[in-house]
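Entry:
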Amino acid sequence: MTDAITIRPATRHDLPEVLSFIRELATYERLAEQVQATEADLAAALFGPRPYAEVVLACLAGTPVGFALFFHNFSTVTGKPGIYLEDLFVRPEARGRGAGKRLLSWLARTTLERGCARLDWAVLDWNAPSIGFYRSLGAARLDEWTTMRVTGAALERLAHS
């Protein structure tokens, strides 16, 4: 059934749908109360003078059923850029039809076409279905790495120290 799935870049017109995907993913990840993004934020970040990220949509018979938001990073070890997949989500009713695999395949192809050395992403440790799916595609878990983050007041303190 994967033949009905197409991948296309998001446009400004898709911003309400992209924000909806972000909210649905946040609900799935038990983070809904943390979503602060607005359509205006996304318009500036995705389509402003300096785009910070890109979005592609997985469509089933022309209707968006999934999305991937990604951006470039850089590896000093390889001396090459990479692609970091920030978010990937497929609506429950469309799962099992190949949308997730099509999105990741598109990202892998784009990674190679852009001369990037690797495609990275994070997954919540409790998300067994996604971990199993990613492993089935050949992704390796990097257990030796711990993600660190600084936000809010701690970010302010660090910026002014």
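The helical segments are 15-28, 39-47, 99-113, 128-136, 152-159.
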